[in-house]
Specification:
Length: 550
């Protein structure tokens, strides 16, 4: 059951992060897709993945001494990692025939079962220069460019699967709305009515932020799609004013879910009348656990790799061994920071980590709202050092301003609180950060954090979170046991959140410095209660039961 003919689920995602050397991801959505596929391989779930191949990646982030971000193409050679396939298909875009070839990457599971990921590629000589460029950048270009990419992914992806012999697909899983044009190809190709198409489709929505839901004018859609499907038919599923990719997926999917319990509620409010369930995200345990912690888990919980739920038994691992392993991971991080920044971070100081996309709603700068209070905490409660990382979208100028602000604060506070900003946040750097800090910080505006997964990665390495009660943390936070909350569940108030953040730090830091036994108990609880549940093995099993099985 490891051949094309046996694949039952096609998993479509605009980005898939499977290896940092294959830059076909920008952040959380793509890394989640990669982790999902890895767990499917471990659990022998008969999936095939579909994505676009981006020859220049998202971008390589270069930061100058003032924190100005420069985007450099992340050049790589697909031939180094992927296997070229000899099949070709084509789609019509703006009346042109766009030819598509494919590459394959095999994700090998713990027991040898493999999941193929099919990467679609339009950079071939017979295509126009514009069509060849559709493979250049993830989330690059304008609306015309984005819609063309989504035609290649959705329509071209379904056609390529058919051409490659994947003829027994029972479910098409759209990981976010970017892939929802696949529903139109199913309507056209299989001569099915909308009810029949719904039986085939699963849709996961990942964002409560309006910008995350792609919309296109019907003038652009009519020009790009041509006669794939009559416009009056299309509008029944996508809205009268503009083509809303999320509405298209909602109207043509049998099973729909958000990615945390709270996000399910928010999505039902955003799209009333749709039966939106929730399956809380997870992370691939083996991928995100530091090698020293892997050895520790191998010693005490030998079955943990294929049964991460058994990490609940971490509650009986001796606390001093957890601390010793943490120090190994922390040394690795501190050495990396000092090599990259020459800021003189030290091993003993309480280290707080914050790493995610640099954008306003994630409030990277909340901890700097009262600099005198922050200095006072470091001087009088316990010394702290802060490490940040994250890319701003090339067109997110306020996000770029945030990065510059952190650099400015770092210079201002250099003699009082050490602050580092590490450039080019990617999967490899994330692994070092989530395992090496002492506390993971997350301060988004509610309810914009659909789920969040970085805190789950930290928990696998015994790192507690200090986070706004949003997304997964509403489910994962046991106050003072797995970590701590900031603010209330419902009210967004920068001033109150700031005050509560500082108050919590004044409670947390003395535990770290003065009550090591209690601190290591919290680390152990983060593993036992959070890592054992917030993983993609549990998540995939829920998808199988709730979404894939009829």
């Amino acid at each position: 059951m490891n051949s094309e003919k046996d694949r039952k689920i096609a998993y479509f995602s605009m980005e898939i992060g499977i290896d940092s050397r294959i830059p076909t991801y920008s952040g959380g959505l793509g890394v989640l897709a990669g982790d999902t596929i890895k767990s499917c391989a471990d659990l022998k779930v008969p999936v095939v993945g579909v994505c676009l191949l981006y020859e220049k990646g998202y971008f390589y982030q270069k930061l100058d001494e003032d924190g100005n971000q420069r985007e450099i193409p992340a050049q790589w050679n697909p031939k180094d990692f992927l296997k070229p396939l000899d099949k070709r298909v084509n789609v019509q875009i703006e009346g042109r025939t766009v030819n598509i070839r494919a590459w394959q990457y095999d994700v090998r599971g713990a027991t040898g079962y493999t999941i193929p990921i099919i990467f679609l590629d339009t950079d071939i000589p017979e295509n126009s220069q514009f069509d060849r460029s559709l493979n250049d950048f993830l989330y690059g270009g304008d609306q015309r460019y984005r819609l063309a990419q989504e035609i290649v992914l959705g329509v071209g992806g379904v056609r390529m699967l058919g051409e490659l012999g994947y003829t027994k697909i029972k479910k098409f899983h759209m990981n976010e709305g970017h892939a929802s044009l696949l529903t139109l190809e199913l309507l056209r190709n299989k001569k099915m009515d909308s009810e029949a198409v719904r039986e085939f489709c699963v849709f996961t929505t990942h964002t409560p932020v309006p910008a995350g839901h792609d919309q296109f004018s019907y003038d652009l859609v009519g020009s790009a799609l041509g006669d794939l499907i009559p416009l009056d038919t299309l509008k029944k599923f996508t809205g009268e004013d503009r083509l809303n990719m999320t509405l298209l997926a909602l109207n043509l999917s049998k099973y729909i879910n958000g990615v945390a319990k709270k996000h399910g509620e928010v999505s039902r409010e955003m799209f009333p009348g749709y039966p939106i369930d929730s399956i809380t995200n997870g992370i691939h345990s083996y991928t995100w656990t530091h090698k020293a912690f892997k050895r520790l888990y191998d010693k005490y919980i030998p079955e943990w790799i294929n049964d991460p739920f058994s990490l609940r038994y971490a509650i009986s691992i001796p606390k001093e061994e957890i601390w010793d392993v943490h120090l190994q991971a922390k040394k690795e991080l501190i050495d990396y920071i000092n090599k990259e920044t020459n800021l003189g971070f030290d091993y003993e100081t309480f280290t707080i980590g914050f790493a995610r996309r640099a954008t306003l709603y994630k409030r990277m700068d909340l901890i700097f709202s009262d600099m005198n209070r922050l200095i006072s905490i470091s001087d009088n409660v316990g010394k702290i050092q802060l490490v940040f990382s994250g890319k701003a979208h090339p067109k997110d100028f306020s996000g770029k301003d945030l990065i510059r602000k952190v650099f400015g604060v770092s210079r201002e506070l250099k003699d009082k609180v050490r602050i580092a900003y590490l450039e080019n946040y990617d999967m490899d750097l994330a692994k070092i950060l989530v395992s090496g800090v002492d506390l993971w910080l997350n301060t988004p505006l509610r309810p914009n954090e659909a789920s969040g997964t970085s805190g789950m990665k930290a928990a696998h390495n015994g790192i507690p979170s200090l986070s706004i009660l949003d997304g997964w943390w509403i489910e994962g936070c046991i106050e003072g046991v797995t970590g701590w909350s900031v603010g209330s569940k419902t009210i967004d108030d920068n001033q109150k959140d700031t005050e509560n953040l500082y108050t919590k730090l004044e409670e947390i830091i003395p535990i770290f410095y003065g009550h090591k036994d209690r601190w290591t108990e919290i680390m152990r609880s983060a593993i036992a209660f959070n890592a054992s549940f917030f993983n993609t093995h549990r998540m995939v099993q829920q998808y199988v039961l709730n979404a894939y099985l009829d």
